[in-house]
Each structure stands twice: as C-alpha cells, then as structure tokens.
C-alpha cells in the first residue's frame, strides 16, 4: 500500500501545464485533476462535469485521497483557460458505480441502479443495499432511482444541487440502460441482478424493462434480452421521433411502443431487422461498440438514423472497424453498411459536434471490456488517433492523436465552447500488465490468462500494481475553432423553459461572424460507450439578420427530448459560436415576432437548405449570398 502515495504524486505531476485558450487544433491535457475518476461522465450547465467513480478497492487506497472516499465529484471546467477544478460536494447514499443515466426533463440528471461495492466514508452498513464488506466485486445490484436536481441558478457558480434517492425500481439493476422520453418518463432496460461473473451466470439474468414513474406492472419480460444473455448489458437504446424506443441487443433490434400497455406480454414490442452476418462478436458489452443518432434536419423531415460502430471481431480478439446504420422509424428498414472506422476500436466514444460531424475517440485495439480496477486488464493496445466522421460524405478523416489512453470505463463530452473532453479509464496502469502500448497476445487472453501476468497486478502477492485510476482530462479542439471568427450569441435567459413548436429568437452580436445555421445539441451523459442522450437537431431558419435568427423548436417532444441543450450558431465556414444553454420542455408556446422587411432567408432557401454538414452544400452558399446581399441592401 505504501506504493500508492508516490504513484499518485507521479500521476498528478505528469500533466504539462497549459496556459489560456488552445491556439491550434488537436489535443491538450488540461490543468488539474477530476478528484473522482470519471467512470460515469455527465454534463451539467456551465460546463460542470459530474463524475462518478468505482469505489477504490484493494490494493489501491481504499479511500480515494482526492475525495476522502466520496464517489461523485462535480468538476468545473474552464475550456478557455484549460483548467479543471474539482468541487468535493456531492455525496450519494447509494453507490452509483455501474448505474445507467440520462439527462432529465427539468435539466437535472437521472442516475439509476448500480453496484453496492463499499465506498467509505459514505458507506453505511445499515442500508440494506450496501452489502457486507467482503471487498469483492460480485455484490447484488442496486434498485435505486436517483435524481440529481440542479441548484437554483443552474450555473457553474452554483453547482451544488441535491440528490433524491428514495425511489426504487421493481428490481436491482447492474449495467442498465436508461433513457429519457418525450414526456419526461425514464425507460430503464436490462441490467443484471448483480455484478456479472461470466464463470457463474446462474443468478444474474434480468431480462426485463420498466419505466419511472412506474407504468404497467410490475415490469416487462423481454425475450430478446433473455435470448441474448449474458450479452444483454447496457443495450443500445434511443428515443425515436415516432415515440417508439429503439433497442439493439447483441445483433437483434426491437422497437418498443410505450403507449401500448402490454399487460404481462410483449405486445408493445416488435422485432425489426437483424444486423448483417459479418465477422463481429455480439454488438454489446464486453465487445463494446458505440452508437449515436445521425444529425437530424428539419429540411429533410428530422428522420432518425441510428449508427453503430466498432466493438470486437468474432474470429479473433482484435477490435472491429465496422459501422452500420438503420432508420428504425421507416417501415421495412434494414441495416446498411457505412464506411469503416479508420482505426478499429472497442469501447469507443462518439461525440456529435455542433457542425454535424462526429468525433470518434477512446478505446482499445484488442481484447474486451471489463477488469477489476486495473488489477486484471482485459484490453490492450490503446487507440490514440481520433477520427472525424462526415455523415453527408460518409467519409472519415483522422484529426489528431491523443496523449492519454482511454481504456475500460472511459467517456467523452462536448462542452459549450465546441471542444470535446475525454475522461476516465481505470487501466491507467495497463503497462504494468501489458508491457508496451502495442502488446497484444493470446498468452494474455482474459479467458486463459496465465498466472504470471495475473500475479503482477493482483493484491494477493505483494507486487501491487501502480494506481489504475486516470484523473486527467484531455481536451480536443476541432479545426473549426481555427477557421475564422466565431459568431456570437447574446446571453440567453437561463431559467426559462422553451416549449414545443415555439418560435425562438436568438440575438446575435453583429461584431461576431455572420451566422448561416443554428444547431441544437443535447447535453449528454455517458458510460461504457453508452450515451442515449446525444442528438443534434438542425432547425430551418425562419428569419436571419446580422442581429437575429429565428427558428422553430420541433413540435415533437420525442424528437427534441426535454432537458438541457446547447444552442450553437454557425458561420458559413462552419465555425460555431460558444453555445448558450437552452432548456426545452413542456409549457406554454411562445412565438417570436418575425420582423417585416428583408430577411437573410427566404422560405425557398430555407426549404431547400440541406444543412451543409460538410460545409460545401450549395444551400449554405445560397444562404450566405442572401445574407451578404441583405447587408448590401441594408
Ligand atoms: C489555470 O491554472 C493555472 C495553473 O494551475 C493557473 O496558473 C491559472 O491562474 C489558472 N487560470 C484560470 C483562469 O483559472
Ligand atoms: C446473431 O447472434 C447469434 C448469437 O451470437 C448468432 O448465432 C447468429 O448467427 C447471429 N446472427 C447474425 C446474422 O450474425
Ligand atoms: C464466431 O466464431 C466461432 C468460431 O470461433 C464460430 O463457430 C461462430 O459461427 C462464429 N459466429 C458468427 C456469428 O460468425
Ligand atoms: C405549430 O405551430 C404552427 C403555428 O405557429 C401551427 O400551424 C402548427 O399546426 C403547429 N404544429 C403543431 C404540431 O402543433
Ligand atoms: Cu464497467
């Protein structure tokens, strides 16, 4: 144990100090540490990051010295200064390690289920869900529905908030997927009864889903979840604009209609296309791929398209590069093949950027997800390059090389300035085990791991590993931040809820770059490459001048799912403004007055504008020309 203090010091001191705003595109390690390591990463207003960690376990410091044992940290991120500040102020009663989560309709977050692995000093043995302290990993899951409510000002200056942990699900769930629906209900699916042990699967399967607040009763059995076991943890799931829920488990896809009361049957579930038969392991933990929704544009009817990428091959232990997509709301939809990832990876993170491109980061080239706090490491060969996907061209470009490995338990989050941070990894000590960043090998296969390797890192021998918990945040600045001046949005009312089918006026500062597009990117939460929140909407502009842009919030809450969104304005060069926070939810419709006189957009231009995800679509040029013309005229 004496090794720990020196290891921590080394970890903390190896970040190179950065000063001020990034000056070139690419990666940099931010100043400071997260305190708690970010196994779960959730965005709150004001670039406040909530990180939830695995309680530290032997042989590592049982009490995390940074947090004095608390497992939830709130971290204020200053993307311009390159600084992060840990605020030690948000304990949970019921350990949230291994929970599922989503952004909540009121701007808070849901954190549901988890693992009762002991965390001191918040550990309280009198709480039934906190099992006796035997310091092993195979506890029963937690049945708690936790809600984090924002503090009154919902800003970085007031990050405290409060936890409500009284509500319960019908069962315990470890590794459930959670998503927020249009009416604010949360859908909670799968999650085993306890921390899964692939060598003893007798008491873990929980092939059911339920809703909170409760709907129907007690919960609903899913034959697809049951069929896929043990490959049914953290299923991929999204709220679809049709109101149905997309769920993909292993290689089967179902649509669940929450409006249909199924009784004790599966009457609300319809299976749609299976994924094509290719050399790919089940598309789910521990062969973890990631999934996201393509940007959705008003000009093309806001059609939803789910993309799934990465994971593991079936024939070998190498990562897979495959990407597939489907439009689940379209009758008869089939999965189709997209361009493959330039770098095969499992445990990747996909982050939708304000211009509608998608950044792929994190992950490993070999092995599988899983491991015991760095003591047994199932994945090797960290993938450092980052890859950018252009959905219009179906094309990938490699756009930088990260410095920090992001193996098991990693995350990535878009900040309001348009940069992306990567978080987490509990295999920061993977070199103890694997030797070199490129080592792979069947002799170290998780299934038949030779004791020579295992012992290097296992606490029963006194050769304890170095600290596995990664506390650093690395920041990626996309090229668009260096392509010209940024548009400037004037401050937006931070406490107002904007409701469905309202028209919204965005005040623009004419000293910023002229605006050609508005995009809305939902705040996210992510763990285990599972991010049900992420989506980008591009409304058609109803009016545009140098000082004002007007657009309509979609009428459909299952499209513009309630909660916090980033509102970005983009220049004709694709340079985003700093986002303003917009809380979308139920309420009275408000309509901005569309000024009479010349507008930067005509109805025709708006109608045909295809969104310019690739920055070259003629619609934008038309729009840019219209803006320029209006300026000349004005
Ligand atoms: C950022 O952190 C550096 C180094 O820790 C410090 O010198 C600087 O004052 C900080 N800047 C801001 C704006 O907080
Ligand atoms: C789906 O997965 C099952 C179980 O892993 C496998 O038997 C089946 O062949 C797969 N189907 C396709 C189309 O890959
Ligand atoms: C996966 O590989 C095994 C052999 O390792 C093979 O028996 C099985 O059919 C493969 N499954 C799929 C879906 O290709
Ligand atoms: C949205 O509002 C417009 C008028 O502003 C109205 O014509 C339209 O029917 C509304 N749509 C829905 C779905 O309520
Ligand atoms: Cu995990």
Automatic annotation (TrEMBL):
Keywords: Signal. InterPro entries: Gal_Oxase/kelch_b-propeller, Gal_Oxidase_central_sf, Glyoxal_oxidase_N, GO-like_E_set, Ig-like_fold, Ig_E-set. The keyword Metal-binding does not apply. Pfam families: Glyoxal_oxid_N (PF07250), GO-like_E_set (PF09118). Residues 1-20 form the signal peptide. Residues 486-582 form the Galactose oxidase-like Early set domain. The keyword Signal applies. PANTHER family: LOW QUALITY PROTEIN: ALDEHYDE OXIDASE GLOX-LIKE (PTHR32208:SF21), SECRETED PROTEIN-RELATED (PTHR32208). This is Galactose oxidase. The lineage of its organism: Eukaryota, Fungi, Fungi incertae sedis, Chytridiomycota, Chytridiomycota incertae sedis.
């Amino acid at each position: 144990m004496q090794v720990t203090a020196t290891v921590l010091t080394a970890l903390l001191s190896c970040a190179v100090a950065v000063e001020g705003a990034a000056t070139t595109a690419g990666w940099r390690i931010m100043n400071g540490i997260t305190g708690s390591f970010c196994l779960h990463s959730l965005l709150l207003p004001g670039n406040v990051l909530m990180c939830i960690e695995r309680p530290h376990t032997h042989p590592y410091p049982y009490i995390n010295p940074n947090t004095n044992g608390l497992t939830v940290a709130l971290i204020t991120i200053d993307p311009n200064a390159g600084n992060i500040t840990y605020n030690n102020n948000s304990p949970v009663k019921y350990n949230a390690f291994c929970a599922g989560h989503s952004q909540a309709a009121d701007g808070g977050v849901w954190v549901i289920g988890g693992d009762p692995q002991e965390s001191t000093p918040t550990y309280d043995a009198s709480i039934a869900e906190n099992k006796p302290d035997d310091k092993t990993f195979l506890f029963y899951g937690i049945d708690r529905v936790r809600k984090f409510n924002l503090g009154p000002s919902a800003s970085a200056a007031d990050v405290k908030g409060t936890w409500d942990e009284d509500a319960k699900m019908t069962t315990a769930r470890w590794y459930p997927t959670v998503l927020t629906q249009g009416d604010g209900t949360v859908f909670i699916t799968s999650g085993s009864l306890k921390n899964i042990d692939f060598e003893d699967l007798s008491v873990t399967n929980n092939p059911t889903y339920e809703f909170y607040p409760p709907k129907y009763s007690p919960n609903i059995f899913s034959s697809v979840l049951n069929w896929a076991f043990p490959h049914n943890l953290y299923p991929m799931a999204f709220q679809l604009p049709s109101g149905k829920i997309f769920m993909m488990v292993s290689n089967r896809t179902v649509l669940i209609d929450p409006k249909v009361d199924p009784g004790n049957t599966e009457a609300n579930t319809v299976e749609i296309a299976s994924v094509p038969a290719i050399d790919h392991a089940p598309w789910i933990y521990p062969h973890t791929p990631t999934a996201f929704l393509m940007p959705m544009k008003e000009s093309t009817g806001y059609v939803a398209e789910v993309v799934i990428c990465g994971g593991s091959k079936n024939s070998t232990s190498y990562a897979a590069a495959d990407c597939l997509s489907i439009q689940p709301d379209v009758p008869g939809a089939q999965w189709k093949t997209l361009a493959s990832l330039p770098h095969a990876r499992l445990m990747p993170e996909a982050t939708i950027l304000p211009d509608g491109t998608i950044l792929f980061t994190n992950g490993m080239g070999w092995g599988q997800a899983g491991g015991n706090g760095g003591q047994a490491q199932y994945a090797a060969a960290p993938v450092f390059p980052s890859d950018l996907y252009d959905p219009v061209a179906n094309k990938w470009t490699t756009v930088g090389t990260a410095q920090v490995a992001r193996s098991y338990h990693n995350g990535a989050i878009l900040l309001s300035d348009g940069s992306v941070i990567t978080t987490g990894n509990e295999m920061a000590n993977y070199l103890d085990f694997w030797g070199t960043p490129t080592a792979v090998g069947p002799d170290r296969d998780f299934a038949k791991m030779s004791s020579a390797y295992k012992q290097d890192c296992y606490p029963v021998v006194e050769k304890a590993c170095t600290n596995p918990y990664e506390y650093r945040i690395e920041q990626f600045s996309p090229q668009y931040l260096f392509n010209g001046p940024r548009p400037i949005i004037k401050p937006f009312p931070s406490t107002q809820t904007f409701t469905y089918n309202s028209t919204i006026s965005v005040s623009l500062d004419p000293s910023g770059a002229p605006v050609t597009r508005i995009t809305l990117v939902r705040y996210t939460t992510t763990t285990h490459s599972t991010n049900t929140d992420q989506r980008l909407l591009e409304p058609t502009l109803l009016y545009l001048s140098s000082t004002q842009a007007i657009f309509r919030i979609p009428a459909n809450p299952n499209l513009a799912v309630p909660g916090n969104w980033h509102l970005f304005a983009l220049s004709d060069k694709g340079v985003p403004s700093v986002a303003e926070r917009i809380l979308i939810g139920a309420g009275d419709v408000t309509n901005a007055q569309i000024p009479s006189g010349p507008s930067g957009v005509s109805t025709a231009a708006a109608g045909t504008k295809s969104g310019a995800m690739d920055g070259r679509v003629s619609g934008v040029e038309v729009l840019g020309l219209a803006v320029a013309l209006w300026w000349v005229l004005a």
